[in-house]
Amino acid sequence: MTPSARVQAAIELLDAIIAAARDQGAAADTLIARYFTERRYAGSKDRRAVRELVYAAIRQLGERPRSGRAAMLALAANDSEIAALFDGVGHGPAPIGASETAAKPGVAPEWMLSRLEKSDVPGSEWPALIERAPLDIRINWLQPAPPPIDGAEPIAGLPDALRLPSGTNIEALDAYKDGAIEVQDAGSQIVTLAARAAPGMRIVDLCAGAGGKTLALAALMGNEGVLLATDTDRARLSRLAPRAARAGATIVETRLLDPGRELEVLGDWVGSADCVLIDAPCSGTGTWRRNPEARWRLSPDRIERLVETQRHVLEIGAELVRPGGAIVYIVCSLLDEEGAGQAAAFLGRHPGWQAASLTLPAGRAHGPGIRLTPGHDSTDGFFVARLERPC
Ligand SMILES: C[S@@+](CC[C@H](N)C(=O)[O-])C[C@H]1O[C@@H](n2cnc3c(N)ncnc32)[C@H](O)[C@@H]1O
């Protein structure tokens, strides 16, 4: 592909990503993979270059742009080499018209910025929300120790974590294939510590997805005890069992839940869990640095629906916890309506329950819990609270 054909390919991909964000369709990564499956003539250098153009364009636009071309023009506005590739030659994009306007750069839509401000995330922290994220791994002690990895740096307060140079081809490492390491953001590892998981416990990971936190819990439990991983999404949950097998996590049981009727298959767990970890579905405002196009998918209505689901899963958690046990409530969002406000509202509905004081290797106290932010902690953004049921 010529350099200008790569720019045109990026424009076409951005058009597909914009439409998918508007219609809640496939993720950008999936669309990029699909695009190149249909264009076998593109070599690995072309793929990498197009992907970089696409993500550079997405990263600098907080608001969903009107078209892929407007998004790429915003990139060209600050990069004369890209602007010069709008030459209309061969498969390249048409020359830039005199009255053509580029999409407006920004961190997030205006309505979202004001919610971040109301949630005490100051403007000085906004740029870090969309910077490139590092590649963090967790060493899985359920498998033999991995050999040293080139360029790996320790992460303060997390003896089981390492930060790898960006661009490390993790999937090619034997340690990854053997399940001795897992890709997991340091923030995700830190908030999981609030579960105080230990051998012999009975723990439910209620919103387990494909099991990122389930596997960390199994390792902390040393494969002793009972660990139930549930979710309402069949596709995500079905990825958990093979991952657990690879990681050597033998105590994990999975159960698919029916939305709205979750407790029907959880009768044997009512009032008996030492801990229910609720990594609730959320807006993901803390993970924009990994999924920058997620900003284009949000709306006030969508957040309202997520807040309602979070309230719902918290109530299910309350049914499962034994007297003296705890819910660990986690969201990868920085909005108070999903985090601190949601946890405070739970405490208001459940007299006697109390927020435990948490000591974690990073983060700052925020409402009844702790908040981690990319700007302050160099992790994804999270809110976590440990809500303890009276004995
Ligand atoms: C933030 S993701 C979980 C990520 C996962 N814990 C991890 O560490 O990789 C939230 C999950 O909640 C699930 N979910 C949504 N509604 C649910 C419900 N009513 N009960 C259980 N899980 C639900 C979603 O399908 C999604 O997989």
UniProtKB/TrEMBL annotation:
Keywords: Methyltransferase, RNA-binding, S-adenosyl-L-methionine, Transferase. GO terms for molecular function: methyltransferase activity. It is an enzyme of class 2 (transferase). The keyword Lipid biosynthesis does not apply. It comes from the Bacteria. S-adenosyl-L-methionine binds at D231, D258, D279. PROSITE patterns: SAM_MT_RSMB_NOP. Signal peptide: none annotated. This is RsmB/NOP family class I SAM-dependent RNA methyltransferase. It comes from Sphingomonas oligophenolica.
